[in-house]
Amino acid sequence: MWSLAWTLAFVFLAMALSGWQRLGLSRELVVAAVRACVQLFLIGYLLKVVFHLNNLWLTAAMVTLMVCVAADNASRRGQGVAGRFWRVFVAVSATEVCTQGFLLAARVIPPKPSYVIPISGMIIGNAMVAAGLFLHRLRHEAAARRGEILVLLSLGASPKQAARTVVKAATKASMIPTIDSSKTIGLVQLPGMMTGQIIAGADPVQAVRYQVLIVFAILASAAVTTVVLGFLTYSRLFNAYQQPLL
Amino acid sequence: MTHSAREHPWALQFVNVSKWVVGEQGRRCVLDRLNGRVATGTLLTLVGPSGAGKSTLLSLCNLLQTPDDGEVWVLGREVRDWPVSQLRRKVGLVWQQPVMLPGTVADNLALAARLHHEPPADGAALLCRVGLPADLLHRPAHELSGGQMQRVALARTLANQPDILLLDEVTSALDREAADVIEKLIVEWVNSEHKTAVWVTHDTEQARRVGHETWLIAEGRAVEQAPTAQFFTAPQTVWGQRWVLAGQSQGERNA
Is A72 on the interface with B (CB under 8 A)? Predict the structure, then answer.
């Protein structure tokens, strides 16, 4: 515990730099450090109980809670898009069901909370980032291409036809970070899961196997999330008279 | 009102149409209980000061905006009762600033057909119609000059075979020669095919040249509505008289 306390020195270093450069971030740094400690310890003790109980419903409830938090966070990026929380919730849930369901069905991972919950966390976390980027980009593209959308609508295009380019651009833009980080994985950064396993004493090759699994699942999760979200949100760019709202 | 509108299917009818917009300075009335009707086969020119509501009036006709009050009837049916895609095919709109979609000129001309899953129109013939050479077909649309883009935008709308054409200052960015081509095309399209056009223009002489009927829009109302010849020779309202006088002074200065 004392060795962990020493790591607070990193926070003090960041605060000292902030004070020296007058960035005004000291309060933010304290809040972030306290929140990180409280949240991580809470989740640590909670996971200990859930792993010990090894109960299917408890595991499902835990995953659902993760999806809710992810949907709430990502949907904040999509102001102006009505009903975005539920749309992100459905997209992230679909991603979790597809990817985690496949891993379990193919027996790539055992149906234990100690496997399902951490891997769900990575899949849902990545889906959340992709969904947030998608919504942000969708608003930006819809505003930037408003002229094109109006031309298409005035020629009698349906909302789906008029929104096609915008949704396509937002989907591509939100998938690029995931694809790029997958390309440089192992070269620029050693991913968290693999690093954690190696530190815990696992065989690095075994750690790589799990990491490859995660990389593939994350690639699929970005694709599933953004494509499902595209189908669920394009109609919200228009009102009942097929007039653009953004 | 609705009864008489159904009995007489005018191309366009505006019944107590009001429209407000919310801007930085709060809620503003753009159209204020505007009334008027346009018979099929008429080329109506809309004139009036900037911000009077002319462009808003156009966008109500193909439901790109919705009236806040009153009714807009298109070919005997209220705009909100039309299937939206069908209405917008019937009522084409060309803006002052042409917007080209990514791709070639041919792609832009084939757009309407692609949207409606129909065989594409003859791109070369469409270009010829708006006075452009057929060798432009395979040029990227974004490389065209502003005047060429405007003509391609018009051809793209005509490819949809509308019954009513809404034109929002479509020749304001064109040189005299190109504007003449467009004027002749629209006048011929209206007269020979018995179509209807509503043309917003700031060019008083153009309004006089091409119009069958002219409306002066000011402060959100159609303050003078008359056959074009009468509008410019014997305006009935003070608004109309002032507008025609101002137009004459402007014409003399330009001459």
Answer: no
